[in-house]
Structures are given as structure tokens and as C-alpha cells.
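FAQ: What does the model actually see?

It sees only this:
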Amino acid sequence: MKNSPPGRVPKDFIVLSRQLLQLANQGATRLEFLRAASRLLLTFTRCDDLEVWLSDGPLHYRWTCASDDSSTFQVSGELERFRPFLDTLDEPIRDILEAVLDGRIHEQDPERTANIPSEMTYDGTWWTPKTSAISNNEKRRSGMKSSLPGYGSLALIRINVDDHTHGVLILSANTANFFTPQTIENYEAIAQTLGMAIAGRRAQAALKERVKEFTCLYGIAHILEHRDLSLADSFRQIVQLLPPAWQFPEMAAARIELDGKVYEAGATDKLIHRQCADILVDGKRRGRVEVGYNCDREDFAEGAFLHEEQSLLEVIAREISHFVERHEAGEQRVRLETQLLHADRLATIGQFAAGIAHEINEPLGGILGFAQLARKNAGVPQQTVADLDQIVAAALRAREIVRKLMLFSRQTPPAKSMIQLNQVVEEAVAFLRARWTERKLELVRDLDPDLPELLADPVQIHQVAVNLLVNAIQAIPDTGRITVRTRADGSAVKLIVEDTGVGIHPDLLPKIFNPFFTTKDVGIGTGLGLSVVHGIVSSHGGCIDVFSQPGHGARFDVTLPLDGPDPRQESAS
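And it is asked to produce this:
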């Protein structure tokens, strides 16, 4: 009979206990466990309904299950949140329930339940063969339906899960005199087994989640160890490891965002619940890691995510941050090593060029002097005069190359004074006017009228402007435009020369300041123009940046400090 008192033997109890503990060891989610455990308990006890109330620190849970397999789950941070339900109970029964949840069951005044036929065991179980009914009007007025009022028999059995969690198992049956002292004794043992099973399920579920988390972290560490992977490839692999590490991987999605680039696993644009952690690189927010779910579950009554999952997300964000910092530090180290090698090579070439210049200057002076003297002699044939003119021109050209070598190697000391960059640029433009007008090139001057003065060698800065303009003229094969700009930049000024010429191939950009390196035809350039510019700018404590794409011209940005180089920089150089 469905509602007849069960006659259970110890063997049945042992089977039920084993089933509950085996169910707990499966590591199922809380609601999956409660649903399966409720079916086992209802089948074993033959009750019509059961409820499980748990107080777990600040949270209170209520799980109800009926013989028709219907169930509900509620969670709240305050027991008072269940007041609408509690108010549907008879006052003595409500007091008993609250006392069981609070652990005060033995403090109850027996006179409070004197009007209800009931029993109380030594372990604090309160049970009655018949409860008082509640009217339908009162049910409607309360706005909630309760499974307890109106039942013929009721038992409130305390559950101990651990030191922090306790509760009550409520069994109810439609018929009166359903419970007996023997069945209540068995149910008390069942309730304690249920408490052990709840604790075991928590431990198994926690272990399962920790294994997933450590698997995720191990996979991330393995990816980050591969130095051959780019940042993008690393993040594409890492983001795939995130959803499986969360409690419900089948409905999880993840994304990593860094500097505006996004790497996804799943449809993150449809997330209903999400949690995030910032990626901080050198203290600056560069992106974030995000994981979420794209649908709801009954399990989300107290929140969609475990506390440990937020901690895991923050650890992942920190690992990514450290990885980006290491990656960028490595790139910076490579750049500095390249610059150091380049500077060392330039220094060696500079010393070599200075030696050559000193050795060549003396014979050049003799060639030039004797050629000019010979040309002044009377009676020199016209052809000889023409030849002497060629000798003089070649000597002057050689002397100009030597002068540029001296500038490149910084053997000519600068004579610095306060100068106006705009005026130097105007003089350079006027000096080359014939060259760009002959080529029918458009020259655009965009000079800042409020440009402050700077401490520099006017001759050398004039040389910088001339060399950059000549380089721009030579870079334009037919017609085009050259733009010269000056700008104030804090404690520095900028000289910008931009052309619409053929541009510079990316592979050649690192070489353009090397002495004697040129892409021009033989006889057009010596390959010293940009090297001289680099040497002059460096001697003034400035820097030069190049921006170019093949077929789209080039732009040279020269930055010069207003007060000249740091004295420590000059002494070090």
C-alpha cells in the first residue's frame, strides 16, 4: 500500500545507505544529487512529500520533492526570506522547524506543542501522527502553497552535514499514524546518512572542479612555454581551454581581449551570465578575460558561478598579463640589442671614416692647390685648362665627401647657439629652390609660427634640413609633392620631411642610416646623406624616426631637444 506504514528491515536500510553514498561519489551537481536522492528516499519511506532544509553559513536552502516527481529549489541569505512559506505553517510547527534549523530544538517549550499529538526523540526529531490543517482561505491569503499543512503525519528530522552546515529532513504523509517509533529511528539514521552523502557529494564535486581547474592551468602553462608561438596563436589555444574548466562546460563560452583584438571559444555575444577579470600589463588595463553561460539553469538559484571560478579567472588573467610582459620585454631586448649592434657598427665605421678623412685631406689640399696654380699660368692650352677644371671639381667633390665623413664621425665640434628652426628650414628651401623647381615638384611648407628657439649648431641643422630635402627630391622619380613641417613637442621641436616618392621597402629600413648605403643609381648619391643626418641628430641629443611603405612615399621625423643633449649623454658618447 502506498500510504501504509513501511516495514523496513535493516537490509533495506543498508541498501539505501549504499545507494545514497554511491550517488554522492559520482560528483553530480547539487540539484542532480537532490533530485536522485529524493526519489530514493520517497521510494524507501513511501511518504507523499519530502523537504530538505539546509543552513550553510549565511545561506539557507529549501528543496521540495513530491511523489509525482515535481520539485522546487530556493536559496536565500536570510531565513526571513522564506517567511511567506513559513507563515503558512501552524505556529508550533513553524517554531519547531526554525528551532531545528537553528540548532535549538531541545530548547523548545513542550507546552508550545501540547495541543498537537507529537513525539520528540533524544536526537531532536519531532514527529506527529497528525498535523492540524490549514484552511484554503489562509493558503490563498499567504500567496504560497505548502506541502506541509493538511498532511496526516509529519516528521522533522535533523541533518548534520559538517561543522558549518546543518538542516532538517521533513517527511510528510497523507494518512494519520503513518510514523512509528521504529520507523522514526530508521529515518534518523537515514537523515545522518543523507548528511554524509551531501558532504561527500560536495567533496567529490569540489575535487572534480579542482581537477578541471588544474588541468586548465597546466594546459595554459604548457602553451606559454612555447616561445615559438606568437601572442595571437597562444591566445587562440588558451581560450579553448577555458570553457571545459567551468562547472557547466557544455553551455560555457569564453573570450580573451587584448589591445582591441578578440579571441573566442563559443558564442560570447549571447551570454546571459558572465564574469570577467582585467588583463593588467605594467599596471595598465590592456584587455580582459571573460567566461559565461548562454542560458539559465535551475542550479543558478544562488548564482551562476562558483567562488573558485572567479579566483581561477583572475589567476588566468594574471598569467596572461605576465606572459604579455615577458613577450614585450623580449621584443624590447631584441630591439635594444639590434640598436646596440647598429650603434657599435656605426662607431667603428665612424672611427674608420675619421682616419680616412684625415689621411685624405692633406693630399687633396695639395691636388686642389697645385691644380689651381697651374690653371693660373699663362699660355696653358685651352684643353689643359678644361682638364684642370675637371681636376679642381673632382677635388672639391672629394673634399665635400671628406667633410661629410668628418660630420658623420663627429670629428668636427659643433658650435651651438640659440637658433630658430623655421629660419634654418627657410634657408635650406631657398638653397635647393632651383633643384625642386627644375623638377617641377610641389613644395608645401607647414611651419609652426610659435616654434620656440633651440640650442643647436645652425650649420649642422642646416645640413640636416638640406640632406633630408635632397633625399626627398631624389626619391620622387617624376612629379610629386614634398611637405616640410615644424612642430613644438613639449621640451623639443620636430622637423618633419615627407615625400610622395617610391618609398622604402621594410627590409631596407634598418640599413638606411648605414654609411655608404644607397638605393640610388651610381653617380646620384654617395650614401652618406642620411648617415650624416643621423650623426648630427644624435650629437644634439635627438632622434629620427622613419615611416614608409613601398609606393607610398616616406616621412622622416626629427626630434631635437630645446636645451641640447644631456651633458651626461655627451660625455658618455
